[in-house]
Amino acid sequence: MQAFTTLTGIVAPLDRANVDTDQIIPKQFLKSIARTGFGQNLFDEWRYLDEGQPGEDCSNRPKNPAFILNQSPYDQAQILLTRRNFGCGSSREHAPWALLEFGFRCVIAPSFADIFYNNCFKNGILPIILSEAQIESLFQQVLACKGEKFSVDLDKQILTMGVGDQLSFSVDSFYKERLLKGLDDIGVTLEQADAIRFYENKRKQERPWLFQ
What we know:
- The chain contains eight helices and seven strands, in the order βααβαβαβαβββααα.
- It is an alpha/beta fold.
- The chain has a seven-stranded mixed β-sheet with strand order 4-3-2-1-5-6-7.
- Strand 3, helix 4 (114-122) and strand 4 (126-129) form a beta-alpha-beta unit.
């Protein structure tokens, strides 16, 4: 998993509340657990004017020009600004996979569904929770300045806007550490590799018949 330390990127304003995981990546595309191939179908029903099919090449599909991620420069955004309860619905981990493959490394909202929130950290995406008033202020700023860029410093837990204003954000210390180190669940386990090997060798000595 790619580590997250600092990020400066274009902010895409998705002015919708209660965006569920079936809107993030519709169920018909959940045909693989390979973690790749989902970015082209991110927000599929909003991005395209036709009905997409699993495995279909999306390069020639008609796009909805009114959808924010089809507009330049938001098609190159790395930070998603959205409204409350983002990622609600089913617990599919494909949702952060699709966001990540599209290019998003950070999502800012007043609140997230718990499972989606945890899945973001497991896949290298930083979800930032700010107050409703702060989110509204950020929306006004981003909408007033097309292509606005924010900078995120995870270690210092500081969000810096293009005008230089800064906001602090909270993040669980365990999740912060694993993002800074780029550790997914397997990586967290492998940090204890020496202790695991010691335990297994000890078991072989104490109960050799188990390993015959």
